[in-house]
Amino acid sequence: MLAGLLLASANFIAVLDTTIANVSVPTIAGNLGATSSQGTYVITSYAVAEAITVPLTGWLSARFGSVRVFVSSMVLFGVFSIVCGLAPSLGILVVARVFQGLCGGPLMPLSQTLLMRIFPKEKAAAIGLWSMTTLVAPVMGPVLGGWITDHTHWGWIFFINVPIGIVAGFITWSIFHKR
Questions:
Q1: Phi/psi at 123 (5° precision)
Q2: 1 pLDDT exceeds 90?
Q3: What is the pLDDT of residue 21?
Q4: Which of 6, 86, 90, 163 is the most buried (most CB within 10 A)?
Q5: Which helix (H) or strand (E) holds 80?
Q6: Is 7 in contact with 115 (CB distance < 8 Å)?
Q7: What is the DSSP letter of 65?
Q8: pLDDT at position 171, please?
Q9: pLDDT above 90: percentage of residues in the chain
Q10: Cα 25–chain centre separation
């Protein structure tokens, strides 16, 4: 059950980050001395980088192992989330978002792959939980991003990934490292 929740949460934060910055772009751009149109690179950079690595996930998994790629992606996703939240300029934020997207790309397919490996086909609830995170995260992203930006610093839209990314990565490794 713990493994199922961890894998679903990994999927949740990867999908959440596709939309969480959408409503925060004007604030981010203003704080970093950029225009709103320049600020849209914060969204585009993540989406493009993620789209690049999703198709490569099969090759990466075959080459390095699904668990290694998943855990590495998860921990690095958390690390680059820290860099995004602390970014002093738009350029650094965009580069950090590219790396965050490169790390976030494998999380969705590998979380589903690992779920299917540990739960028998009869346990459809695990895939249901995973599917629910895929549907709910893009809807919650703008709402959560707007609320966080209004009540705290915009960097917190990225910092919320850190505990999930790093803790889930290490716990997942402790559960799956022998598989």
A1: -90, 70
A2: no
A3: 92
A4: 6
A5: helix 66-86
A6: yes
A7: -
A8: 85
A9: 69
A10: 18
pLDDT digits (tens, 9 = 90+) for 142-152: 999 999 999 99
**pLDDT range class, residue 73, cuts 50, 70, 90:** very high
**Residue range 93-112: mean pLDDT, rounded:** 95
Residue 172 scores a pLDDT above 90: no
d(CA 161, CA 53): 19
Written as one string, the DSSP assignment of 146-179 is HHHHHHS-TTHHHHTHHHHHHHHHHHHHHHHTT-
Rounded to whole angstroms, how far apart are CA atoms 119 and 106?
20
Name residue 90's amino acid: L
C-beta of residue 84 within 8 angstroms of C-beta of residue 93: yes
**Band of residue 17 on the pLDDT scale cut at 50, 70, 90:** very high
Q: Which amino acid is at 66?
A: S
Locus of tokens 């705290």: 152
> What does the block give as tokens for 62?
């075959």
Distance CA(143)–CA(57), nearest Å, equals 30
- Taking Cα atoms as reference points, which of 116, 118, 131 lies closest to residue 15? 131
Q: Are 12 and 139 in contact (CB under 8 A)?
A: no
Residue 35 falls in which region: left (phi positive, over 0), alpha (psi -120 to 50) or beta: beta
